[in-house]
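User: Can you predict the 3D structure for this chain?
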Amino acid sequence: MPKDDLTPKDPHDRLFKRVMSDEANVRQFIKEFLPIELSSQIDLKEMKLIPTEKIKGYNKYYMDIAVECKISDTKGQLYFVFEHKSYPDPGVLLQILNYM
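Assistant: Here is the predicted structure, written as structure tokens:
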């Protein structure tokens, strides 16, 4: 199917980032998908999203989600990286390692 100017680039990525840019959705994600041993230590009331733009060398890139919060009464930050592929990619683990 040919792409035209009206077809959005990476629609799945844009949808994900739009949904997860809402703090209520991120709070719900943390409650539902993190182990209770971890999620119970995160103060979700004081959690806030922080900018995810980073610069490495001359390249600008964006992490998926970054939040500032208290973890066991200590100020901290959590970073969530979601790597969704539309095809099997044997190099995905190296790609995620590069994000670190």
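The chain has one domain: 11-99. The chain has a mean pLDDT of 80.
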